[in-house]
C-alpha cells in the first residue's frame, strides 16, 4: 500500500444495517487478502437524512457523494456501495476497483399472511391491495402485471430502511412491500419473503444485487489488491445494464429495469441476454425489449451491448415514458 501498512485500512460505509452488513462482509474479505485489519468508518449521506422521495431529490448519487468526498479527502481508504446507487458516469479520480460476485438480483414481495402478488391482485374486486415501494420502476411493472391479470392494485410511495418498510406490513398499514432479495439475504431475513418476483414479471434495477468497491485512483497498490475481489462475469453483466441506463439518459430513480443473464451450455457460459424495460408508473405503457449475443470479452463490448438495446428502446418510444431525463 502507498501509506503506512501497519495501520488499519479504513472502509467507508453508510450507517444503515444493510450497508454495515455488506461492508462487513467486504471488510472480512479484504482483511484475508491483505493481512491488515479493516475498520468501518460510518458516513451519513444526503439520501439517508432526506425524507423526500428519491425522485424529488434527484436520486442519482445521493447515497454515494458523501462517501466519494471522504475518499477524495483521504479520510477513508476505500468505500463500499450498492452498485445500483452509483451514477453511471465514473469520476476520473476514483477507481471502481472491484465488483464482487453478484447476489440474487431479483425483487421480492413481503406480504401479509404470506400472500403472493397474484393472490393480492385478486383481492382488488373488493378493495385494491396496497403495495408499498419507493421505486417508480417497481410501480410501473407491478401495475402492468396487475393489468395483465385483469386487476388493479394501489402502489403506495414509501421510504425508510428494511425494518421500517416491513413494519408497514406488520402494523397493517400496507398489504405488502417490495424489496431487493440481495439486501434481505445480506442481513439474514430471507425467510420473511412471501414471493420471489421473477424477472419475466419485474426486471430489477440496473446493477441490483451487486456491490461496488471504490478507492482513489492514486492508490494503485490498494486498487490492485481490491481487484482480486472482482468477478468478471458480474462486471460485464452490470456494465451492460448500466450502459443501457446511461444511454437512456436516465437516473437511478427513473422507471428503468435491466438485467443481463449469463446463459450457459452445460458448465460453459456461452451467451449473455440483456433485457430492459421502461414504463409509466401507472403501468399503462411499457417498452420492454431484449437482445442476446456472445458474452462480452471487455467492458467496451458490454457498453456497446447496452447502448444498442437502449437505441432500440428509444426507437419504440422509451424517452417519452421516463418523465424528466437526467444525465
From TrEMBL:
Origin species: Streptomyces aureoversilis
Modified residues (S-(dipyrrolylmethanemethyl)cysteine): 252
Protein family membership: Belongs to the HMBS family.
Function: Tetrapolymerization of the monopyrrole PBG into the hydroxymethylbilane pre-uroporphyrinogen in several discrete steps.
Entry keyword tRNA processing: no
Pfam families attached to this UniProt entry: Porphobil_deam, Porphobil_deamC
Listed InterPro entries: HemC, Porphobilin_deaminase_cofac_BS, Porphobilin_deaminase_N, Porphobilinogen_deaminase_C, Porphobilinogen_deaminase_C_sf
Enzyme Commission code: 2.5.1.61
Requisite cofactors: dipyrromethane
Stretches assigned to the Porphobilinogen deaminase C-terminal domain: 237-314
Reactions catalysed according to its record: 4 porphobilinogen + H2O = hydroxymethylbilane + 4 NH4(+)
Family matches, as Gene3D superfamilies: Periplasmic binding protein-like II, Porphobilinogen deaminase, C-terminal domain
GO molecular function (one): hydroxymethylbilane synthase activity
Subunit comment: Monomer.
Name of the protein in question: Porphobilinogen deaminase
Cofactor info, note text: Binds 1 dipyrromethane group covalently.
NCBIfam families: hemC (TIGR00212)
Keywords: Porphyrin biosynthesis, Transferase
Domain of life: Bacteria
Note: The porphobilinogen subunits are added to the dipyrromethane group.
Keyword Transferase among record annotations: yes
Domain (Porphobilinogen deaminase N-terminal): residue spans on this chain: 9-219
Amino acid at each position: 500500500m502507498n501509506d503506512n501498512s501497519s495501520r488499519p485500512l479504513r472502509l467507508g460505509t453508510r450507517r444503515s444495517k444493510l450497508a454495515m452488513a455488506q461492508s462487513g462482509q467486504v471488510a472480512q474479505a479484504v482483511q484475508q487478502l491483505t493481512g491488515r485489519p479493516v475498520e468501518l468508518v460510518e458516513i451519513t449521506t444526503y439520501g439517508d437524512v432526506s425524507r423526500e422521495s428519491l425522485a424529488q431529490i434527484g436520486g442519482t448519487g445521493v447515497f454515494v457523494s458523501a462517501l466519494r468526498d471522504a475518499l477524495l479527502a483521504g479520510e477513508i481508504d476505500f468505500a463500499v456501495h450498492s452498485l445500483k446507487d452509483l451514477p453511471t458516469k465514473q469520476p476520473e479520480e476514483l477507481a471502481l476497483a472491484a465488483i464482487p460476485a453478484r447476489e440474487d438480483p431479483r425483487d421480492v414481495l413481503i406480504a401479509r399472511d404470506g400472500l403472493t402478488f397474484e393472490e393480492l391482485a385478486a383481492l382488488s374486486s373488493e378493495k385494491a391491495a396496497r403495495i408499498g415501494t419507493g421505486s417508480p420502476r417497481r410501480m410501473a411493472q407491478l401495475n402492468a402485471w396487475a393489468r395483465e391479470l385483469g386487476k388493479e392494485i394501489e402502489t403506495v410511495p414509501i421510504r425508510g430502511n428494511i425494518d421500517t418498510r416491513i413494519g408497514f406490513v406488520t402494523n397493517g398499514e400496507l398489504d405488502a412491500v417490495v424489496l431487493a432479495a440481495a439486501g434481505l439475504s445480506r442481513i439474514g431475513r430471507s425467510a420473511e419473503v412471501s414471493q420471489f418476483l421473477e424477472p419475466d414479471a419485474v426486471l430489477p434495477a440496473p446493477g441490483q444485487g451487486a456491490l461496488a468497491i471504490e478507492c482513489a485512483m492514486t492508490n494503485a497498490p490498494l486498487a490492485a489488491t481490491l481487484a482480486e475481489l472482482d468477478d468478471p462475469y458480474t462486471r460485464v453483466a452490470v456494465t451492460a445494464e448500466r450502459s443501457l441506463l446511461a444511454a437512456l439518459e436516465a437516473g437511478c430513480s427513473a422507471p428503468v429495469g435491466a438485467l443481463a443473464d449469463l446463459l450457459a451450455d452445460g458448465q460453459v457460459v456461452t451467451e449473455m441476454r440483456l433485457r430492459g424495460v421502461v414504463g409509466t408508473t401507472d403501468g399503462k405503457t411499457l417498452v420492454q425489449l431484449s437482445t442476446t449475443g456472445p458474452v462480452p470479452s471487455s467492458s467496451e463490448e458490454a457498453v456497446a451491448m447496452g447502448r444498442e438495446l437502449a437505441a432500440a428502446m428509444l426507437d419504440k418510444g422509451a424517452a417519452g415514458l421516463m418523465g424528466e431525463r437526467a444525465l
